[in-house]
Amino acid sequence: MTAAPQTQPAIEDAEAIPPEPLPGGVYLRPCNPVPGPALAFDLVDVLFRGTPGRRQVRLQQAVLHRWAERNAPGAAHEIARLGARLSAPRGPVCGVALDRPRLMGVLNVTPDSFSDGGDFAAQDDAIAHGRAMAEAGADIVDVGGESTRPGSHAPDEAEEMRRVIPVIRALAGDGLLVSVDTRRAAVMEAALDAGARIVNDMSALGHDPDARTVVAHSGAWVVLAHMQGTPETMQQGPRYDDASLDVFDALAARVAAAEACGIPRARVIVDPGIGFGKTARHNLEVLRDLALFHGLGCPLLVGASRKSFIGRLSAGETPKARLPGSLAAGLHALGEGAHILRVHDVAETRQALAIWRGIRDPQSSMPEIPR
């Protein structure tokens, strides 16, 4: 369990703070960010790793760099780099601007996924559901042929391709923006040839040694998601020193590895992997600290839809009965600046998103609907 942080009031005058030794790794977490292609915020928490828990100080963004030079000179360069990444505009994803939150619809072409296994295992059913999600407002349709529920076992490569390739080809042929949810390089390559434009890899391109080469050479976008362990083992006692900071460090390493293989940061989306190698408490810690992940300099995707922690916090509801909790987690993520929500219930999430935007942004468009 992460120790409760030591928080100070926001500081306006950098000279008022006496120098302190740097206790560990440094991270930045914007406070109450205003979502958009370029994140806007006035206050930022500077987080330091420590023993037994983290320490933090809250600063006005305007004094951040002066404060760092005076109080943490050894970390001033890293603080400046993180600060620049927090504020840097995020470009369009495959032509889809991030001027408003976007929805990625989940399409599991599997017999054993945790929430809808078997519902869309038949090819025609899967294609129809993908089209229905796009009609309901999904900006991206994410097609997966391998269940990553805890304890699941992967199908062989040929079976995974048999499940997803015809569906991807049909949906991409309709002009939809399609991603492929896979850990295998051969499936990635076949899916991209069939018209997918985004690779969504829960192993963050760490499972298959050829995956980074496939993505680099294709020019596709990639979602690097965090998972501790594998689907078979990830819920067997996951442990972290500090869940949020450990996940941040792991994703930072995977983004750097992608860059080293020729995948520019400008084509990377990051996903902290809610429910993947995390207890309910870990999931809540990561959700509270979501704004931290903007320091990776990439669009932020969050997938909390129907996850088991919702039932554990509530009354033990089955996956399909977790819509209210999914909406609560999703709207929280948007309030922390998330750019993309990965969801099962597209129409319902779209409605919640419309109200959320209308309340927060009086300038958002209000379509005329007949009474």
Task: Explain what you see.
With 371 residues, the chain is of the alpha/beta class. The chain has helices spanning 64-71, 76-87, 123-136, 157-173, 185-193, 211-218, 243-260, 280-288, 308-313, 323-335, 346-360, and strands at 26-31, 43-48, 55-60, 102-108, 140-144, 178-181, 198-201, 221-225, 268-271, 301-302, 340-343. An eight-stranded parallel beta sheet has the order 9-8-7-6-5-4-11-10. Strands 1-2-3 form a three-stranded antiparallel beta sheet, covered by helices on one side. Helix 10 runs parallel beside helix 11. The protein starts with 25 loop residues before the first strand and ends in an 11-residue tail after the last helix. The model is unreliable at 1-6 and 13-23 (pLDDT under 50).
Quick take:
With 371 residues, the chain is α/β, with parallel strands linked by helices. It has 11 helices and 11 strands. It has an 8-stranded parallel sheet with strand order 9-8-7-6-5-4-11-10. A 3-stranded antiparallel sheet has the order 1-2-3, covered by helices on one side.
By DSSP, the count of extended strands is 11
Name the overall outline.
Answer: globular
What gap, in angstroms, lies between the N and C termini?
Answer: 52 Å
Number of helices: 11
Helix fraction, binned, reads: 25-40%
Poorly predicted ranges: 1-6, 13-23
Class by helix and strand content? alpha/beta
Main pleated sheet:
8 strands, parallel
Strand order of the largest sheet: 9-8-7-6-5-4-11-10
Please indicate the percent range of residues in DSSP E strands (runs of 2 or more). 5-15%
Give me the strand/helix succession.
Answer: EEEHHEHEHEHEHEHEHEHHEH
Mean pLDDT: 90
